[in-house]
Structures
1.
Amino acid sequence: MEKGGRRKFLGICLGGCVAGIAAAVLYPVYRYLAPRSGSGATARVEIPEKDVPEGEAKFFEYGGSSAVLVRKRDGSLVALSAVCTHLGCIVQWEKDTQGFLCPCHAGHYTPDGVVTSGPPPKPLTKLPFTVANGSIRIG
Ligand code: FES
């Protein structure tokens, strides 16, 4: 193999290694931040009332994506999509501040899903639910 051919071959090998390492690092980050999707999505979800105490939030799968049920400190319930309206990251419940934080760009929402700061352009999507016989039915 001549000198130019060897250099080109090494360049291709190095490029392949860099691409492989980048994929190995970025794919898990993408899977963590991206909303879940799937065809086996459940249209209705039932959660026992006792699983959502006051001031707490319970995350669950709904329609192939992440959703959350919150029991506010006044005892009222809210069901929301947990997908941030900015770029689609999954929000986290902050028990101390009784609000949602999006870890991607520090968007903040109230327990009702209203944006209080950061880049999200609109509130979290509300989900319909009913409560009967100690069970909360979403959808
Ligand atoms: S994706 Fe949530 S603030 Fe950017």
2.
Amino acid sequence: MKRSDLTGSRWIVTGATSGIGRALAIELARAGAAVLASGRRVERLESLRSEIAASGGQCDVLPGDIAAKKTRQSLVEWVGSRWQELDGLVNCAGVGAMGRFDQATPDRLRQIFEVNFFAAVELTRVCLPLLCRGRLPIIVNIGSVLGHCAVPLKSEYCASKFALHGFSDALRAELLAAGIDVLLVSPSTTDSEFFDSALEDQTAKNWKGTRAMSPERVAKKTIAAIRGGRREVILSIGGKLLVWADRFFPSLVSRLLARFAQ
Ligand SMILES: NC(=O)c1ccc[n+]([C@@H]2O[C@H](COP(=O)([O-])OP(=O)(O)OC[C@H]3O[C@@H](n4cnc5c(N)ncnc54)[C@H](OP(=O)(O)O)[C@@H]3O)[C@@H](O)[C@H]2O)c1
């Protein structure tokens, strides 16, 4: 469904304390939406709220660990008591780790899946009744190009984003009749705090490189996809090329990627 006007729409944005989530909260508020922003760092949420309020926008904040059921429940209860309905849910909170799978602990895998997959899925589950009552409702899952083409040294992260990709596709079909859209956004490397906040980096690589997209640009492209009623967007040309090459020349791409495995 197209959404030319976001004025007055009501949104939950997770992972709003930095990077893509923060930029999305600002961009949504700029478009006239009301935002309930979440993340663990309270002072970051307060500064987001002040920044949005200073430019005339509406932002409320609710801090907490999104992997905890009680945080997700608080978000739903907040929306239920204030708005009664929800028009958009952005599952953006995410975490990564860099290093070989055979040198990683089971805990690393669990932590990544708890935030990137289970939290997004379970928040979606409890938000569905609110979204059913919303106006042109949409679930926006922030995936990754690595949820289309997996790379070495980020095995758990890739797996979590593939899982989110699969969930998004299945849910989109299930929710079509209810009129709830599901948009999967797949950014490439983004100039955020993501690599500094990684659970672990056992490599000596410069992951951010020099071509990272700004979170603001990711947010603008995401809003354009929301407005345009898109079902899936891969944001960078490099990302599109990688996914295309992997689809049509999988053996070649595997051999090339293996060079980066050390
Ligand atoms: N950066 C990239 O290169 C890139 C590329 C493709 C996709 N993505 C995806 O984009 C999304 C946003 O990442 P980013 O690049 O903006 O990184 P970021 O700046 O590190 O932001 C990550 C956000 O997730 C939140 N978060 C992490 N663990 C959380 C937890 N347990 N509970 C609540 N919030 C939690 C963080 O907030 P607190 O620490 O305050 O809790 C922060 O707001 C992620 O899903 C990521 O996988 C990133």
